[in-house]
Protein backbone atom coordinates (compact mmCIF):
# COMPACT_ATOMS: atom_id res chain seq x y z
CA UNK A 1 0.00 0.00 0.00
CA UNK A 2 1.36 3.39 -1.03
CA UNK A 3 0.35 6.85 0.13
CA UNK A 4 -0.49 8.61 -3.14
CA UNK A 5 -1.30 12.29 -3.71
CA UNK A 6 -3.27 12.94 -6.91
CA UNK A 7 -3.27 16.62 -7.85
CA UNK A 8 -6.45 17.59 -9.72
CA UNK A 9 -9.93 16.06 -9.46
CA UNK A 10 -10.84 16.59 -13.10
CA UNK A 11 -11.61 13.73 -15.45
CA UNK A 12 -8.23 11.99 -15.19
CA UNK A 13 -7.62 12.60 -11.47
CA UNK A 14 -10.99 11.34 -10.28
CA UNK A 15 -10.90 8.23 -12.50
CA UNK A 16 -7.30 7.53 -11.48
CA UNK A 17 -8.32 7.69 -7.81
CA UNK A 18 -10.91 4.95 -8.47
CA UNK A 19 -8.29 2.67 -10.03
CA UNK A 20 -5.69 3.30 -7.32
CA UNK A 21 -8.16 2.90 -4.45
CA UNK A 22 -9.23 -0.43 -5.92
CA UNK A 23 -5.59 -1.54 -5.90
CA UNK A 24 -5.49 -0.89 -2.15
CA UNK A 25 -3.52 2.35 -2.14
CA UNK A 26 -4.26 5.27 0.20
CA UNK A 27 -5.16 8.11 -2.16
CA UNK A 28 -5.71 11.78 -1.40
CA UNK A 29 -6.98 13.86 -4.31
CA UNK A 30 -6.27 17.59 -4.02
CA UNK A 31 -8.44 19.88 -6.16
CA UNK A 32 -8.15 23.66 -6.41
CA UNK A 33 -11.89 24.20 -7.08
CA UNK A 34 -14.68 23.80 -4.57
CA UNK A 35 -16.65 20.58 -4.89
CA UNK A 36 -18.42 20.89 -8.28
CA UNK A 37 -21.13 18.49 -7.11
CA UNK A 38 -22.36 21.24 -4.77
CA UNK A 39 -22.55 24.08 -7.26
CA UNK A 40 -22.51 25.29 -10.80
CA UNK A 41 -19.99 24.05 -13.33
CA UNK A 42 -17.03 26.27 -14.12
CA UNK A 43 -17.37 27.95 -17.53
CA UNK A 44 -14.65 28.20 -20.12
CA UNK A 45 -14.10 24.52 -20.85
CA UNK A 46 -16.40 22.62 -23.20
CA UNK A 47 -19.84 21.92 -21.74
CA UNK A 48 -20.13 18.59 -23.48
CA UNK A 49 -17.67 16.03 -24.74
CA UNK A 50 -17.60 13.32 -27.37
CA UNK A 51 -16.88 10.08 -25.53
CA UNK A 52 -15.74 7.21 -27.73
CA UNK A 53 -14.93 3.55 -27.15
CA UNK A 54 -11.47 4.38 -25.75
CA UNK A 55 -12.99 6.31 -22.89
CA UNK A 56 -15.92 3.98 -22.44
CA UNK A 57 -13.57 1.05 -21.99
CA UNK A 58 -12.02 2.81 -18.99
CA UNK A 59 -15.40 3.64 -17.46
CA UNK A 60 -16.53 0.02 -17.93
CA UNK A 61 -13.57 -1.15 -15.83
CA UNK A 62 -14.78 0.87 -12.83
CA UNK A 63 -18.45 0.05 -13.43
CA UNK A 64 -19.46 3.55 -14.50
CA UNK A 65 -20.34 3.01 -18.16
CA UNK A 66 -24.01 2.27 -17.47
CA UNK A 67 -24.67 5.46 -15.50
CA UNK A 68 -22.72 7.66 -17.90
CA UNK A 69 -24.26 6.14 -21.02
CA UNK A 70 -27.79 6.44 -19.62
CA UNK A 71 -27.56 10.19 -20.17
CA UNK A 72 -25.46 10.05 -23.36
CA UNK A 73 -26.69 11.05 -26.79
CA UNK A 74 -25.22 8.79 -29.51
CA UNK A 75 -24.04 10.63 -32.63
CA UNK A 76 -23.87 8.19 -35.54
CA UNK A 77 -22.24 10.51 -38.03
CA UNK A 78 -21.45 14.08 -38.88
CA UNK A 79 -23.97 16.43 -40.43
CA UNK A 80 -22.32 18.93 -42.74
CA UNK A 81 -23.98 22.32 -43.10
CA UNK A 82 -22.83 24.08 -46.29
CA UNK A 83 -23.52 27.83 -46.63
CA UNK A 84 -26.03 27.08 -49.34
CA UNK A 85 -27.23 23.69 -50.46
CA UNK A 86 -28.39 20.60 -48.70
CA UNK A 87 -27.35 19.07 -45.42
CA UNK A 88 -25.01 16.12 -45.90
CA UNK A 89 -25.00 13.30 -43.32
CA UNK A 90 -21.75 11.31 -43.29
CA UNK A 91 -22.09 8.16 -41.11
CA UNK A 92 -19.19 7.13 -38.89
CA UNK A 93 -19.50 3.48 -39.95
CA UNK A 94 -20.62 1.67 -43.07
CA UNK A 95 -23.59 0.06 -41.28
CA UNK A 96 -24.46 3.40 -39.68
CA UNK A 97 -24.60 1.81 -36.22
CA UNK A 98 -21.35 2.90 -34.60
CA UNK A 99 -21.50 6.15 -32.69
CA UNK A 100 -19.59 8.55 -30.54
CA UNK A 101 -21.49 9.86 -27.55
CA UNK A 102 -22.27 13.39 -26.50
CA UNK A 103 -22.10 13.63 -22.73
CA UNK A 104 -22.07 16.46 -20.23
CA UNK A 105 -18.55 17.19 -18.96
CA UNK A 106 -19.94 18.31 -15.59
CA UNK A 107 -22.13 15.23 -15.14
CA UNK A 108 -19.23 12.95 -16.12
CA UNK A 109 -16.87 14.64 -13.68
CA UNK A 110 -19.49 14.45 -10.91
CA UNK A 111 -20.11 10.74 -11.57
CA UNK A 112 -16.36 10.10 -11.38
CA UNK A 113 -16.08 12.10 -8.15
CA UNK A 114 -18.96 10.13 -6.61
CA UNK A 115 -17.27 6.88 -7.63
CA UNK A 116 -13.91 8.02 -6.26
CA UNK A 117 -15.46 9.14 -2.97
CA UNK A 118 -17.16 5.75 -2.63
CA UNK A 119 -13.90 3.83 -3.20
CA UNK A 120 -12.26 2.64 0.04
CA UNK A 121 -8.96 4.41 0.68
CA UNK A 122 -9.79 7.50 -1.42
CA UNK A 123 -10.15 10.96 0.16
CA UNK A 124 -11.16 14.04 -1.84
CA UNK A 125 -9.93 17.43 -0.65
CA UNK A 126 -11.28 20.55 -2.36
CA UNK A 127 -10.10 24.18 -2.38
CA UNK A 128 -6.49 23.01 -2.30
CA UNK A 129 -4.38 24.55 -5.06
CA UNK A 130 -0.93 23.05 -5.41
CA UNK A 131 1.74 25.75 -5.19
CA UNK A 132 4.79 23.75 -4.07
CA UNK A 133 6.07 20.29 -4.84
CA UNK A 134 8.95 19.66 -2.46
CA UNK A 135 7.44 19.71 0.09
CA UNK A 136 3.84 19.51 -1.18
CA UNK A 137 2.21 22.87 -0.43
CA UNK A 138 -1.39 23.82 -1.12
CA UNK A 139 -3.10 27.19 -0.96
CA UNK A 140 -6.45 26.91 0.80
CA UNK A 141 -9.03 29.48 1.97
CA UNK A 142 -7.44 29.08 5.44
CA UNK A 143 -3.90 29.70 4.19
CA UNK A 144 -1.08 27.43 3.07
CA UNK A 145 -0.93 23.80 4.21
CA UNK A 146 1.75 21.15 3.74
CA UNK A 147 1.13 17.50 2.94
CA UNK A 148 3.23 14.38 2.47
CA UNK A 149 2.95 11.44 0.08
CA UNK A 150 5.12 8.59 -1.19
CA UNK A 151 4.02 9.15 -4.79
CA UNK A 152 2.65 12.32 -6.43
CA UNK A 153 0.59 12.15 -9.64
CA UNK A 154 -0.09 15.42 -11.48
CA UNK A 155 -3.54 15.24 -13.08
CA UNK A 156 -3.96 18.99 -13.01
CA UNK A 157 -4.70 19.67 -16.66
CA UNK A 158 -3.11 21.51 -19.56
CA UNK A 159 -1.73 24.35 -17.42
CA UNK A 160 -0.41 21.86 -14.84
CA UNK A 161 1.18 23.38 -11.74
CA UNK A 162 3.00 20.08 -11.11
CA UNK A 163 4.57 20.33 -14.58
CA UNK A 164 5.42 23.97 -13.90
CA UNK A 165 7.19 23.00 -10.67
CA UNK A 166 9.20 20.28 -12.41
CA UNK A 167 10.14 22.77 -15.09
CA UNK A 168 11.31 25.16 -12.37
CA UNK A 169 13.52 22.43 -10.88
CA UNK A 170 14.98 21.74 -14.33
CA UNK A 171 13.65 18.18 -14.24
CA UNK A 172 11.55 18.42 -17.39
CA UNK A 173 11.48 19.99 -20.85
CA UNK A 174 8.29 21.23 -22.41
CA UNK A 175 7.02 22.74 -25.62
CA UNK A 176 3.66 24.49 -25.88
CA UNK A 177 2.28 24.99 -29.40
CA UNK A 178 -0.72 27.26 -29.37
CA UNK A 179 -2.96 27.49 -32.46
CA UNK A 180 -3.78 30.85 -33.99
CA UNK A 181 -7.39 29.78 -33.53
CA UNK A 182 -9.32 30.05 -30.27
CA UNK A 183 -12.84 28.87 -29.47
CA UNK A 184 -16.05 30.35 -28.14
CA UNK A 185 -19.14 28.46 -27.00
CA UNK A 186 -22.61 29.46 -28.25
CA UNK A 187 -26.01 27.89 -27.61
CA UNK A 188 -28.90 26.61 -29.70
CA UNK A 189 -31.78 26.25 -27.21
CA UNK A 190 -34.60 23.72 -27.69
CA UNK A 191 -37.12 24.69 -30.33
CA UNK A 192 -40.48 24.35 -28.62
CA UNK A 193 -39.88 21.17 -26.65
CA UNK A 194 -37.65 19.54 -29.19
CA UNK A 195 -34.10 19.61 -30.54
CA UNK A 196 -33.66 22.35 -33.14
CA UNK A 197 -31.31 20.06 -35.15
CA UNK A 198 -30.94 16.29 -35.54
CA UNK A 199 -29.61 15.07 -32.14
CA UNK A 200 -28.16 11.91 -33.71
CA UNK A 201 -25.30 13.75 -35.41
CA UNK A 202 -22.28 15.90 -34.67
CA UNK A 203 -23.01 19.05 -36.68
CA UNK A 204 -20.22 20.81 -38.58
CA UNK A 205 -20.22 24.11 -40.44
CA UNK A 206 -16.91 23.98 -42.36
CA UNK A 207 -15.92 27.46 -43.48
CA UNK A 208 -12.23 27.28 -44.40
CA UNK A 209 -10.44 29.56 -41.95
CA UNK A 210 -13.26 29.20 -39.43
CA UNK A 211 -15.49 26.34 -38.37
CA UNK A 212 -18.36 25.71 -36.03
CA UNK A 213 -19.49 22.42 -34.52
CA UNK A 214 -22.52 21.55 -32.37
CA UNK A 215 -23.15 18.63 -30.01
CA UNK A 216 -26.56 17.81 -28.51
CA UNK A 217 -27.30 18.04 -24.77
CA UNK A 218 -29.82 16.00 -22.76
CA UNK A 219 -31.93 19.16 -22.16
CA UNK A 220 -32.48 19.27 -25.97
CA UNK A 221 -30.22 22.24 -26.49
CA UNK A 222 -27.02 22.15 -28.54
CA UNK A 223 -23.70 23.58 -27.49
CA UNK A 224 -21.91 25.09 -30.47
CA UNK A 225 -18.18 25.72 -30.52
CA UNK A 226 -16.98 28.34 -32.94
CA UNK A 227 -13.29 28.06 -33.91
CA UNK A 228 -11.80 31.22 -35.37
CA UNK A 229 -8.46 33.05 -35.41
CA UNK A 230 -7.69 35.12 -32.33
CA UNK A 231 -6.63 38.29 -34.17
CA UNK A 232 -6.75 39.92 -37.59
CA UNK A 233 -9.54 41.23 -39.77
CA UNK A 234 -11.50 37.98 -39.73
CA UNK A 235 -11.39 36.97 -36.07
CA UNK A 236 -13.37 36.97 -32.83
CA UNK A 237 -12.24 40.52 -32.12
CA UNK A 238 -13.44 41.78 -35.50
CA UNK A 239 -17.12 41.52 -34.54
CA UNK A 240 -17.46 44.40 -32.14
CA UNK A 241 -21.16 45.24 -32.25
CA UNK A 242 -24.44 43.27 -32.11
CA UNK A 243 -25.16 44.26 -35.72
CA UNK A 244 -21.74 43.00 -36.87
CA UNK A 245 -22.24 39.68 -35.07
CA UNK A 246 -25.66 39.11 -36.62
CA UNK A 247 -24.46 40.21 -40.06
CA UNK A 248 -21.52 37.80 -39.91
CA UNK A 249 -23.73 34.88 -38.93
CA UNK A 250 -26.35 35.75 -41.56
CA UNK A 251 -23.63 35.52 -44.24
CA UNK A 252 -21.59 32.56 -42.97
CA UNK A 253 -24.02 30.53 -40.83
CA UNK A 254 -27.42 31.47 -42.31
CA UNK A 255 -29.26 28.26 -41.39
CA UNK A 256 -28.34 28.46 -37.73
CA UNK A 257 -28.84 32.18 -37.06
CA UNK A 258 -32.64 31.85 -36.55
CA UNK A 259 -31.97 29.04 -34.05
CA UNK A 260 -29.71 31.17 -31.83
CA UNK A 261 -31.85 33.75 -30.02
CA UNK A 262 -29.05 34.43 -27.49
CA UNK A 263 -26.29 34.72 -30.08
CA UNK A 264 -25.25 38.29 -29.34
CA UNK A 265 -25.26 37.80 -25.58
CA UNK A 266 -23.33 34.50 -25.83
CA UNK A 267 -20.87 36.00 -28.28
CA UNK A 268 -20.20 39.09 -26.20
CA UNK A 269 -19.96 37.36 -22.82
CA UNK A 270 -18.51 33.90 -23.38
CA UNK A 271 -14.72 33.80 -23.22
CA UNK A 272 -12.42 32.87 -26.09
CA UNK A 273 -10.56 29.72 -25.02
CA UNK A 274 -7.02 28.87 -26.09
CA UNK A 275 -6.14 25.74 -28.03
CA UNK A 276 -2.77 24.09 -28.09
CA UNK A 277 -0.60 21.01 -27.86
CA UNK A 278 1.55 20.32 -24.79
CA UNK A 279 4.58 18.13 -25.25
CA UNK A 280 6.91 17.46 -22.35
CA UNK A 281 9.28 14.91 -20.97
CA UNK A 282 10.06 12.98 -18.99
CA UNK A 283 6.57 12.33 -17.64
CA UNK A 284 7.95 10.71 -14.51
CA UNK A 285 10.77 11.31 -12.06
CA UNK A 286 12.46 8.56 -10.04
CA UNK A 287 9.34 6.41 -9.95
CA UNK A 288 7.88 8.80 -7.36
CA UNK A 289 6.24 11.49 -9.42
CA UNK A 290 4.37 11.44 -12.73
CA UNK A 291 2.14 13.49 -14.99
CA UNK A 292 -1.05 12.07 -16.47
CA UNK A 293 -3.80 13.26 -18.82
CA UNK A 294 -3.65 16.81 -20.16
CA UNK A 295 -0.89 17.68 -17.67
CA UNK A 296 1.42 15.38 -19.67
CA UNK A 297 -0.01 15.77 -23.17
CA UNK A 298 -2.84 18.24 -23.82
CA UNK A 299 -3.98 18.10 -27.45
CA UNK A 300 -6.25 20.19 -29.65
CA UNK A 301 -9.90 19.01 -29.49
CA UNK A 302 -10.52 18.27 -33.18
CA UNK A 303 -10.48 14.52 -32.81
CA UNK A 304 -12.55 14.62 -29.61
CA UNK A 305 -9.93 12.45 -27.94
CA UNK A 306 -8.29 14.42 -25.09
CA UNK A 307 -10.45 13.03 -22.31
CA UNK A 308 -10.61 9.63 -23.97
CA UNK A 309 -6.83 9.63 -24.05
CA UNK A 310 -6.59 10.73 -20.39
CA UNK A 311 -8.87 7.81 -19.49
CA UNK A 312 -6.64 5.43 -21.45
CA UNK A 313 -3.69 6.73 -19.41
CA UNK A 314 -5.48 5.64 -16.22
CA UNK A 315 -6.12 2.16 -17.61
CA UNK A 316 -2.49 1.82 -18.72
CA UNK A 317 -1.09 2.99 -15.38
CA UNK A 318 -3.35 0.52 -13.59
CA UNK A 319 -2.09 -2.22 -15.94
CA UNK A 320 1.56 -1.26 -15.34
CA UNK A 321 1.03 -1.38 -11.57
CA UNK A 322 -0.59 -4.80 -11.86
CA UNK A 323 2.28 -6.13 -14.01
CA UNK A 324 4.99 -4.78 -11.68
CA UNK A 325 3.40 -5.85 -8.40
CA UNK A 326 2.71 -2.18 -7.57
CA UNK A 327 6.40 -1.30 -7.70
CA UNK A 328 6.08 2.37 -8.63
CA UNK A 329 9.74 2.67 -9.60
CA UNK A 330 9.09 0.11 -12.36
CA UNK A 331 5.49 0.99 -13.17
CA UNK A 332 5.91 4.72 -13.89
CA UNK A 333 8.73 4.38 -16.49
CA UNK A 334 6.80 1.49 -18.08
CA UNK A 335 3.69 3.66 -18.25
CA UNK A 336 5.60 6.44 -20.01
CA UNK A 337 7.26 4.03 -22.43
CA UNK A 338 3.94 2.51 -23.44
CA UNK A 339 1.89 5.68 -23.73
CA UNK A 340 4.26 8.19 -25.30
CA UNK A 341 4.10 6.98 -28.91
CA UNK A 342 0.32 6.59 -28.86
CA UNK A 343 -0.20 10.02 -27.40
CA UNK A 344 2.07 11.67 -29.97
CA UNK A 345 0.11 9.93 -32.72
CA UNK A 346 -3.23 11.22 -31.48
CA UNK A 347 -1.77 14.73 -31.02
CA UNK A 348 -0.78 14.78 -34.69
CA UNK A 349 -4.08 13.30 -35.84
CA UNK A 350 -5.99 15.91 -33.84
CA UNK A 351 -4.11 18.71 -35.60
CA UNK A 352 -4.66 17.10 -39.00
CA UNK A 353 -8.36 16.68 -38.30
CA UNK A 354 -8.77 20.43 -37.88
CA UNK A 355 -7.90 20.89 -41.54
CA UNK A 356 -10.19 18.05 -42.50
CA UNK A 357 -13.15 19.29 -40.46
CA UNK A 358 -13.00 22.94 -41.45
CA UNK A 359 -12.33 22.26 -45.13
CA UNK A 360 -12.26 18.79 -46.57
CA UNK A 361 -15.52 17.38 -45.20
CA UNK A 362 -17.33 19.84 -47.45
CA UNK A 363 -15.39 19.06 -50.61
CA UNK A 364 -17.09 16.91 -53.29
CA UNK A 365 -14.00 14.71 -53.63
CA UNK A 366 -14.08 13.88 -49.97
CA UNK A 367 -17.75 12.99 -50.09
CA UNK A 368 -17.13 10.55 -52.92
CA UNK A 369 -14.76 8.68 -50.61
CA UNK A 370 -17.12 9.00 -47.62
CA UNK A 371 -14.43 8.55 -45.01
CA UNK A 372 -15.64 7.00 -41.78
CA UNK A 373 -13.74 8.71 -39.01
CA UNK A 374 -14.77 10.20 -35.72
CA UNK A 375 -15.63 13.88 -35.41
P1 LIG B 1 -8.77 18.63 -16.63
O1 LIG B 1 -10.09 18.10 -17.05
O2 LIG B 1 -8.38 20.00 -17.06
O3 LIG B 1 -8.70 18.55 -15.04
C1 LIG B 1 -7.65 19.15 -14.31
C2 LIG B 1 -8.13 19.38 -12.88
O4 LIG B 1 -7.01 19.85 -12.11
C3 LIG B 1 -9.20 20.46 -12.80
O5 LIG B 1 -10.25 20.00 -11.97
C4 LIG B 1 -8.49 21.65 -12.19
O6 LIG B 1 -9.34 22.48 -11.43
C5 LIG B 1 -7.44 20.96 -11.31
N1 LIG B 1 -6.26 21.78 -11.06
C6 LIG B 1 -5.61 22.59 -11.93
N2 LIG B 1 -4.56 23.18 -11.33
C7 LIG B 1 -4.54 22.73 -10.04
C8 LIG B 1 -3.69 22.97 -8.92
N3 LIG B 1 -2.64 23.81 -9.00
N4 LIG B 1 -3.94 22.33 -7.76
C9 LIG B 1 -5.02 21.48 -7.67
N5 LIG B 1 -5.86 21.22 -8.69
C10 LIG B 1 -5.62 21.82 -9.87
N6 LIG B 1 -11.87 15.46 -25.06
C11 LIG B 1 -12.58 14.40 -25.51
O7 LIG B 1 -12.22 13.24 -25.24
N7 LIG B 1 -13.70 14.58 -26.28
C12 LIG B 1 -14.13 15.82 -26.63
O8 LIG B 1 -15.14 15.95 -27.33
C13 LIG B 1 -13.40 16.95 -26.17
N8 LIG B 1 -13.79 18.20 -26.49
C14 LIG B 1 -13.08 19.26 -26.06
C15 LIG B 1 -13.47 20.54 -26.43
C16 LIG B 1 -12.74 21.64 -26.02
C17 LIG B 1 -13.18 23.01 -26.47
C18 LIG B 1 -11.61 21.46 -25.20
C19 LIG B 1 -10.81 22.65 -24.74
C20 LIG B 1 -11.21 20.20 -24.81
C21 LIG B 1 -11.93 19.08 -25.24
N9 LIG B 1 -11.54 17.78 -24.89
C22 LIG B 1 -12.25 16.71 -25.36
C23 LIG B 1 -10.32 17.53 -24.10
C24 LIG B 1 -10.65 17.27 -22.63
O9 LIG B 1 -11.38 18.36 -22.11
C25 LIG B 1 -9.37 17.11 -21.84
O10 LIG B 1 -8.49 16.24 -22.50
C26 LIG B 1 -9.67 16.52 -20.44
O11 LIG B 1 -10.45 17.41 -19.71
C27 LIG B 1 -8.37 16.21 -19.72
O12 LIG B 1 -8.66 15.78 -18.41
P2 LIG B 1 -7.63 16.08 -17.24
O13 LIG B 1 -8.24 15.51 -16.01
O14 LIG B 1 -6.28 15.69 -17.63
O15 LIG B 1 -7.60 17.68 -17.12
TrEMBL record:
Pfam families: FAD_binding_3. It catalyses: L-kynurenine + NADPH + O2 + H(+) = 3-hydroxy-L-kynurenine + NADP(+) + H2O. It comes from the Bacteria. Keywords: FAD, Flavoprotein, Membrane, Monooxygenase, NADP, Oxidoreductase, Pyridine nucleotide biosynthesis, Transmembrane, Transmembrane helix. Catalyzes the hydroxylation of L-kynurenine (L-Kyn) to form 3-hydroxy-L-kynurenine (L-3OHKyn). Required for synthesis of quinolinic acid. It comes from Phytohabitans rumicis. HAMAP family: Kynurenine_monooxygenase. Its EC number is 1.14.13.9. Belongs to the aromatic-ring hydroxylase family. KMO subfamily. The keyword Amino-acid biosynthesis does not apply. The gene is kmo. Residues 2-166, 286-347 form the FAD-binding domain. GO terms for biological process: anthranilate metabolic process; kynurenine metabolic process; L-tryptophan catabolic process; NAD+ biosynthetic process; quinolinate biosynthetic process. Its cofactor is FAD. This is Kynurenine 3-monooxygenase. Pathway: Cofactor biosynthesis; NAD(+) biosynthesis; quinolinate from L-kynurenine: step 1/3. InterPro entries: FAD-bd (IPR002938), FAD/NAD-bd_sf (IPR036188), Kynurenine_monooxygenase (IPR027545). One of its GO terms (molecular function) is kynurenine 3-monooxygenase activity.
Amino acid sequence: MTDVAVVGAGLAGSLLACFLGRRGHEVTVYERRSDPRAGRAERGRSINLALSERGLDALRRVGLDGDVMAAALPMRGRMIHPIDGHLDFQPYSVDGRRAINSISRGALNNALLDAAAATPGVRLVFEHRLVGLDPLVFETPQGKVEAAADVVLGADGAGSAVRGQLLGYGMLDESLDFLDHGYKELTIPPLGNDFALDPGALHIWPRGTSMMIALPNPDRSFTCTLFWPNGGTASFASLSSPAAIERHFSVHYPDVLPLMPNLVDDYQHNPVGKLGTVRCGPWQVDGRLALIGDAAHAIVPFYGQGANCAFEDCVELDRCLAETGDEWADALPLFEARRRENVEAIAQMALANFVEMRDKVASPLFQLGKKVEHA
